[in-house]
Amino acid sequence: MPVAGIDIGSLSAEAVILAGGVVCGYSIIPTGAESRRSAEAAFLAALEAAGVSRDEVTFIVATGYGRINVPFADRQVTEITCHGRGAVYLIPETRTVIDIGGQDSKVIRVDSRGTVEDFAMNDKCAAGTGRFLEVMARALETDLEGFSVLAGAARKAAPISSMCTVFAESEVVSLIGQGRPREEIALGLCEAVAERTAALVHRVGLAEAVTMTGGVAKIESVVAAISRKLGVPVKIPPEPQIVGALGAALVAKEMAQAKK
Fold it and tell me: How confident is the prediction for the chain on average, in pLDDT?
């Protein structure tokens, strides 16, 4: 019987429908100002994509920072647990998960079943997150895709001394005023994010293979910078944004079976 996982993040909401252990539909939508409304919309969109009716879904698990705002969920589970489970399901050799979302970043060390062994999290500020990169891209007069292209074209990186979003934006504006190429500034920002991410990785201990999840995993230049900093390849799932929701669906599947 179908089950569902719903991940309510700060910038996007994802839902996954799982049936027979296989993903049969998913959705990704902006979270917006009302988490409850986005949870419902994401769930309905995933049901439509899967060709499944609401009544057929036997168990729903919500995760993410907005998980308490999913009133129709049967259970709430932390995103740490769900990202670990989802990453190992998609890439079985995963032992370290790097998740950089809209406003926080986390590193999770897992075992062969996706069970969390240790984790480190930065949720005190938006430094190095999707929101941070959106602000920096805007300062460089581009979008996130253009930002990645700029960084990929750079031969060297401009030094970025601050990771505070406000101060880093001022630093970028100052570097532009000094005539530094936008490509070098973009690469400098990627390396600054990689430096901050590597510090989190080393807090839990680097274990290969490394898999990156979350929206920032779609920014190739950031992923490449993290890989260079860690000295190991970084694997990316086909759709890195749904990994948390997928993990929640996997937990829902186990809970539904336990109820029988």
Answer: 95
